[in-house]
Amino acid sequence: MPAATRELRSQGKKTRARLLEAGMQVLAERGYQATRVDDIVRVADTSHGTFYLYFENKDDLFAALAHAAADDMAALADQLGAVGPGPEGEAELRTFLGRFHETYERHGPVIRAWAENQVTDPAVLTLGLDTFGGIAAVLADRVAESTGGLVDDALATTILLATVERLVYFVTSRPLALDAGPLLDELAGMLHRGFFGAGATAPRRRGAQSKPRRTTRRSR
Question: For the chain, N or C: smaller number of CB within 10 Å?
């Protein structure tokens, strides 16, 4: 009987957790498409029979990882308070970025599979879209509160979330030996000035184009 339909005892929970940890490690090394049950049981140092006591297949294990990631990302969105134009707003944004970075480190292989469209299960794909949609909705509310409708809030939110996600992906997926603290400090300052600070509330001239430089032809 699959583990999802029965109550697990202490040892069963430990075995399932070990399989999930092994699955995350293999996903990080090989990617979603190349991950196999053979790889997972090898890393978990267990048998195929044990694996199938807890998961129906690789997709079933990934779905469990995806739901854990979705829960943490949803909590991340719920924790973002008001981001005002002053120092308190920048501090709130910096706290959010720190939590986002920690969550990405914990669930990076799953989030990358979502972001890079590797997932084939429609339910898990929808879960990923809903998860990022929830974060985007909260960010959109914070941007709207700050700009008062002076900018296209949907477009600004897309740029904001894409900037954060891609930068954190770059930092966590490569051996760059970067200190995340100073990097997130600088990112918080830049994003706060651009999206929530004085720069965000300055009126924008929509459709304004620079005038071409006028040149004169010299006579020979």
Answer: C
| CATH 1.10.357.10 residue ranges for the chain | 58-200
**Mutual angle of helices 58-78 and 37-44, in 10-degree steps:** 70
Identity at 192, one-letter amino acid code: H
Could you give the CA distance from residue 38 to residue 186 in angstroms, rounded to a whole number?
A: 43
Question: Going by CATH, does the domain composed of 12-55 fall within 1.10.10.60?
Answer: yes
CATH 1.10.10.60 residue ranges for the chain = 12-55
Residue 130's pLDDT is: 92
CATH architecture of 58-200: Orthogonal Bundle (1.10)
Question: Are 157 and 133 a contacting pair, CB within 8 Å?
Answer: no
Could you tell me what percent of the chain has a pLDDT over 90?
57
